[in-house]
Each structure stands twice: as C-alpha cells, then as structure tokens.
Amino acid sequence: MNKIPRRIVTGIQNGKSVILEDKIVANAVEHFPNLVISDVWNTQQMPASLDYEMQIPNKGFPETPKNGTYFRYVSIPPDKELGLDVKIGQPHPMMHQTSTLDYIIILSGELYLIMEEGETLLKAGDIVIQKGTNHAWSNRSNKPCIQLAILIDAVQE
Questions:
Q1: CB of 138 closer than 8 Å to CB of 92
Q2: How far is CA 153 from CA 38, 67, 91, 133, in A?
Q3: How far apart are CA 62 and CA 2, in angstroms?
Q4: Which residues, 6+ apart, have CB-to-CB distance to 152 below 8 Å?
C-alpha cells in the first residue's frame, strides 16, 4: 500500500456527474521518520458545502474546524523507527486529546490504542469510535500500520 494516497474527487459539470480530480494527495507530511499524515479533505461547516474546498495546514495533531470535519490518512511506522522514548509507568509521549468524535478504521497492519487506563490491539478491519478521549497510538510490530480517520467537531455535554 502506498504511503501517500491517491485522491479522487467527484462533482457535477453541465448537470452530469464527473471526476474532477484524480491524483496523488499533495497535502502529505512526514512529521517523524516514516510517520506520514495526509489530511485528505475537510469541511468548514455543517451541513457541508459541496462546492468548496479549503486547503488546511497538515499538523501532527489536528485542529478540526469549528462545526467541521477532517478526513485523515495516517501511515504509522513501527515504534522503533520513530525514536520515541517510551517509559514503563509513564504516559506515552504521543498522548493527546482532541475535541472531536473520531471514526477510525485500520486498513492494514496492527496498532495499539493506548488510553489513560488500558490499551487494546487493533488489526486490519477494526473500527474505533473515539469520543474526545486522551489517547496514543503504538505500533509494536515490524510493519507500518495504515489508518483512516474522520474527525468531527464535537462538544462534551
């Protein structure tokens, strides 16, 4: 599987459905060695506009637009390639939290979802519904893990 995805965007021209774009994603960044994040698409409002795309800065930890969404592709290398100093009994150095409802699908490889209390091994085909929780990802295998994530702006009630 490619580290940088191909993106196909459809639309309407002259009243007919067409392919408007078919190319490798331009918004891909390697934040750490072999950790490739591509923010494939975003929306700036709900309901979403079908006629508007705003290029967003690609950051390690996303800043989902207010009332908007992010569609994110991530290739996560094995931990040993990232050079992180993970200490037993200490919070994972990549622990973070977003104010979003996230739909995450593991496409290939495997990955541990680490919470403040507990963790679970995810494999290809697994789906995570993450509700604004503090978390980190740990790839303890020898192969990259590919995940897709859709982040939706949310509020804690």
A1: yes
A2: 18, 5, 25, 13
A3: 22
A4: 64, 69, 100, 101, 102, 103
CA angle 6, 136, 40 (to 5 degrees): 20
**How far is CA 154 from each of CA 56, 131, 135, rounded to the nearest angstrom?**
19, 8, 16
Tell me the per-residue pLDDT of 4-30, one tens digit each, with 9 for 90 and over: 788 898 989 999 999 999 998 877 777
User: Tokens in use for 14?
Assistant: 């002259």
In the block, tokens 């980190």 appear at 136
User: For 15-39, b where at least 16 C-beta lie within 10 A, e where not — what string?
Assistant: eeeeeeeeeebebbeeeeeebbbbb
Distances (CA, A) of 60 to 30, 36, 114, 117, 142: 9, 9, 17, 23, 22
Q: What pTM was computed for the model?
A: 0.84
Q: What is the DSSP letter of 46?
A: S
Both tokens assigned to 146: 């590919």
Q: Hey, CA dihedral for 50, 55, 58, 62, is it positive or negative? A: negative
